[in-house]
Amino acid sequence: MLDFLPERIGHACFFEEEHWRKLKSSKIPVELCLTSNIRTLSVPSIDAHHFVDLYNAKHHVVLCTDDFGVFSTSLSNEYKIAAFSFGLGRKEMFELSKNAVEFIFADNMVKEDLRNIFSLVAKNL
């Protein structure tokens, strides 16, 4: 899968060490759905989630949700879980959400609009 150089990787829960090295060197962003990964037992606990490794490696991660109806979570809740579970402050959470704009499936005009919104918000922080 990594050899195809996709625009993003979803979850990345079952990678072996070789795959992690290849992923990190490829700079392919990873969509992470914390609640889904816990409830489906894809990771044993939030403390063992690979978010920490990817985040600390400064690899591009995008917090997402799978299915609101199935997992009873929202994107806001996923950010809340990340903040509390991994000790991220306002600045880190802002940067995490701002950086996600670069990896959304949208045209450049939409991305530029979102970048401008984040720039305006950053001035008021």
UniProtKB/TrEMBL annotation:
Domain Adenosine deaminase residue range list: 7-116
Pfam families cross-referenced by the UniProt entry: A_deaminase (PF00962)
Cofactor(s) recorded in Swiss-Prot or TrEMBL: Zn(2+)
Keyword Hydrolase: yes
GO molecular function annotations of the record: deaminase activity; metal ion binding
The keyword Hydrolase is annotated on this UniProt entry: yes
Keywords, ordered alphabetically: Hydrolase, Metal-binding
Top-rank lineage group of the source organism: Eukaryota
Record-given protein name: Adenosine deaminase domain-containing protein
